[in-house]
Amino acid sequence: MTNRIHLGKSDVSVHPIGLGTNAVGGHNIYPDMLNEEQGKDMVRAALDNGIDHLDTALIYGPERSEELIGEVAGEYNRDNIVIATKGGLKFAGEEMVMDNSPSFLKQAVDNSLKRLNTDYIDLFYIHYPDKETPKDEAIGALKELKDDGKIRSIGVSNFSIDQLKEANKDGYVDVFQGEYNLLHREAEQTLLPYTAQESITFIPYFPLESGLLAGKYNENDTFSDVRAKRPSFKGENFKHNLEKVDRLRDIASEKDAEIAHVVLAWYFSRPSLDAIIPGAKRPEQVMNNLKVADVQLTNHEIEHIDKIFS
Ligand SMILES: NC(=O)c1ccc[n+]([C@@H]2O[C@H](COP(=O)([O-])OP(=O)(O)OC[C@H]3O[C@@H](n4cnc5c(N)ncnc54)[C@H](OP(=O)(O)O)[C@@H]3O)[C@@H](O)[C@H]2O)c1
């Protein structure tokens, strides 16, 4: 599974296993955040071990994740790194305000280029839809930036199916990024069939449900960070989820793998989904997640997993 993956119809290709860098730059949603050197070391661990796709965003840090990634990328051959970032929003005090207007997006890309210390962005996403801008107009602005060479491919994230269809009216969207994992399968209704039909790469976020799907928790674990607010980590729901995850243990041990590897390998059985960006907090996790490339699930195992989490 070490073939390179093309993002949508663009000429950008990536190793199937990338790195989500939510935790790089001091995102304040987790109490055990990495300091800046730890964050940079984790990115170096990825690049040193064959991962080339780094997924960041204006809001990680905020701004600081992009800056740290730019610093690390400067130590490597830029041509071998695929930098994906997201914008189209601003802060009004603590509040995030979406703005997908063409003029704002053009400014957002210029600002990201500065923070990343680079002259092109391999994949630029509109992070969240705003209420006002027609989506095809927003994408039209990104297409101009692509024609100018400032970005190499176009993505949208957190769009509904209708917003995605409007955005992709002229066929310019290369990547859709949305929440999708074994515990959150709503995307299978309309988004995944649409991306498969339109040759748009679907990149799932929260692929490990923030660690819950890695098989390392038990019902006595408690959470004081952002996980405490997520329904999948609460009460009876948490207990049921742990029971389901536990049922993957046999498949994992048969393959001499870990539950996290089985979960991450399962994504590759989905249509239009051939690149993942698991997040990590330590270089060991980054390296560990690369082992997914060696895990091949049989059709029977895929059906079994689907049934457990149906
Ligand atoms: N587009 C969007 O709106 C959006 C939203 C959210 C995320 N994202 C992107 O998606 C990426 C992934 O999401 P995420 O990082 O929040 O969640 P995730 O990938 O579901 O979970 C990552 C967490 O799982 C644990 N982990 C990772 N590898 C592991 C392993 N091999 N064994 C055991 N535990 C492991 C680590 O947490 P612990 O060490 O704390 O257990 C890690 O921080 C983000 O980094 C970001 O780039 C995008």
Automatic annotation (TrEMBL):
Molecular-function annotations in GO: oxidoreductase activity
Keywords in alphabetical order: Oxidoreductase
Classification via InterPro entries: AKR, AKR_Detox_Biosynth, Aldo/ket_reductase_CS, NAD(P)_OxRdtase_dom_sf, NADP_OxRdtase_dom
Domain NADP-dependent oxidoreductase span(s) in chain numbering: 16-308
GO cellular component, one term: cytosol
A Pfam family hit: Aldo_ket_red
Protein's UniProt name: Aldo/keto reductase
